[in-house]
Amino acid sequence: GNPLPRFAPIDMRLRRPMTTLRLLLVAAAAASALLPSPSPLRSPPTTDAALRVATSGCAGEVRRRVPAVTAVLPPPPPPSARRDGLLARLADGDGWLIALVVFVQMLSNALLTQAVPSALYAHLGQDRVATAAALGRISSSAALLDILVTPQLGRLSDTIGRKPLLVGAPALALLCRGVAASRPTIRVLVIVKLLSLLLTSTFSVALRASIADTHRDDPAALTGKLGLVSASAGAAYSVGMLLGGRLLSRSLRLPYLASASLLALLVPLVAGRANETHPAGARSPLALRPPGFGFVRLFRNGVALRSLASVSALHTTSMAMGDTWQVFARELRGWGVETCGLFGSLSGFGHTAVALLARRSVRRFGARGHTLLATASCAATDLALALGSTRVAFAALPVNWVGRTQGMAVTARLTTAGAAVGFGQGSLAGDHQNLRSLLKVVGPTLYGYLFGLGCSVGVPALPFLFATAVSLSATALVLASPSHVWDPPPQPPAARDAGGGGGSGSGDLAAGSGGAGGSGRGGGS
C-alpha cells in the first residue's frame, strides 16, 4: 500500500477510555429510563384502524383532533407541472440552497473519513485486527451517545424550530475541528470524532424535518428532494475522499484545517439564507422522553410503519461497517490511503448521477420495485467485495451506485406513513435516527468481531458475506410486505388534512444519501 504519514507516539491506552465511556453512557441511558415520563413500552399498540387518529408527541397519548393549520405553506404544484431535470430541481424553491448546504456539510465530513482509521492503524503498529476492533468500539460509543441525545433533538426542533439546530450544530463542529487541527493526538481525535458524529446527526435531524415541513403532502416531490440531497452528498463524498487522502498523506492537521474552513463558510450561509420552515403556530411544547426507546413507536403504529421501519433497519445493518471497511480493504486487497480514497471518490461520483434518476425510477417501477432493485444491488456489491480482487471491486462500482439509493423510496414512504398517524416532523426524524443509532451501536463492533473471527479461520471476507445475507433478508422482507405499504390508496384531501395535524414525519436522509462516513461499499453509513 501507500506509505502512511508519521504520527508522534502517544502514551495512551485506547481500550480503557472507550470501555469507560460506554459504561457511563449505558448507565445514563438506564437512569434516564427511570424518569417519570410516559414510556412507549407501556402504551397500547395502534392498529391500522386507528391510523386517522392524531397522536401527541408522547407515544400512546391520544388527543382530540384539532383543526389543521391552514395557509401555512403554499399548495404544491400538480405533478404534471413539475420537471425532473437537475437544473429544474435546483431552481425549484430552495433547491439550490439545500444542495449547497448538504454539499459543504458533507464535504467537511468526507475530508476526515480516513483520518482516524489511518492514525489508529499507525498508532497500533499496523495491526489490522486491533485497528478494526478499536474503530468498532469508537463507532459504537458514538452511536450510543447519539441514542441518548437524538430523540430529544427531534422534539426540541418541534418546539424551537429547525434553524437554531441547523446553525448551532456546524458552529460547534467548527470549534471541535479547530481543536483537533491544533492538537492532533489520538485522544483528541477520538473525542472530536465522537462529538462530530453527534453534531452531524443533529444537523441531519433538523434538515430532514425542515424538508418534510415543505413537502409533507407530496411524496413525489419529497423523493425528488431526497434525490437532490443524495446527489449533493455523493458529490461531496467523492471530492472529500479524494482530497482527504491526499491531504492526509502530507499531514494529519491538513484535513482538519480544511474541514474547519468549510464549516466557517457553512455557518454564515445557513444563518443568512435559510428560512425557518416550522411556523410558531404549529410548534408544540417540549416533552422530553427517556432516550433509547423512541424507535418503538415506529413498530407500534400500524403495519405500514412497522414494515418500513424493519426494511430501514436491515438497510442500516447492511451498511453499519463504519470506518472499518478501510481496514478490511487493506487486508483483502492491500489498499493504501490513496487507493481507498480513489474507490470512495468514484463511488460517490457515480452515485451523484444515479441519485438524480431515483425519482424517475420510483415513478416507473414504484416504491417497492425501486427498493427491490437497489437492495439486490447492495447484496451483489457486498458479494463482489468479498472476493478480494481489486479489479472486481472497481468493476462492481456501477452496481454500488444503484444500491446506495436503497433508502430513498423507503424514506419517502416512511414520511407519509408517519404523517397518517400524526407524527411531528421532528419526532419522527428523531425516532428514526434513534433506530439507526441503536443498530450502529452493535454494527461496527459486530463487523469488527466478524473480521477478527474470519481472519482466525481463514475467511477475512466474513463481514462482507454477512452484509450480503442481511441485504438478501431485506429483499425478502420487501417482497413479503403487503402492497399497501408501498403503494397506498390515495387519500381524499379532507382526510389528509385532518390526519396531518401536527405535520408529517420524516425519514432518514443519511439512509438514502449514502454520502456520509464510510461503509463496506465505499460510502454511506
Structure commentary:
The model is unreliable at 1-14, 31-91 and 492-520 (pLDDT under 50). The chain is globular, with a radius of gyration of 22 Å. Helix 4 (115-123) packs antiparallel against helix 7. Helices cover 67% and strands 0% of the residues. It contains 21 helices and no strands. The two termini are 25 Å apart. It is an all-alpha fold and 525 residues long. The protein has one domain (87-275, 288-513): Growth Hormone, Chain: A (Up-down Bundle), CATH 1.20.1250.
Keywords for this entry:
525 residues; mainly alpha; disordered N terminus; 0% strand; Growth Hormone, Chain: A; 67% helix
What would you say the CATH architecture is? Up-down Bundle
| Integer-rounded radius of gyration | 22 Å
**Could you name the CATH topology?**
Growth Hormone, Chain: A
In total, the number of domains comes to 1
Can you identify the CATH class? Mainly Alpha
Number of helices: 21
Instruction: Tell me what portion of residues adopts beta-strand conformation.
Output: under 5%
What structural class is derived from the secondary structure elements?
A: mainly alpha
Kindly report the name of the CATH homologous superfamily: MFS general substrate transporter like domains
Please state the overall shape, judged from the principal axes of the Cα atoms.
globular
Beta-strand segment tally: 0
Q: What is the straight-line distance between the termini? A: 25 Å
| Helix content, binned percent | 55-70%
Low-confidence stretches are 1-14, 31-91, 492-520
Largest sheet, in brief, is:
none
Report the mean per-residue pLDDT as an integer.
73
Secondary-structure element order, N to C: HHHHHHHHHHHHHHHHHHHHH
Transmembrane segments: 96-122, 188-206, 226-244, 256-274, 335-358, 446-479
Keywords: Membrane, Signal, Transmembrane, Transmembrane helix, Transport
Membrane topology: Multi-pass membrane protein
Main location: membrane
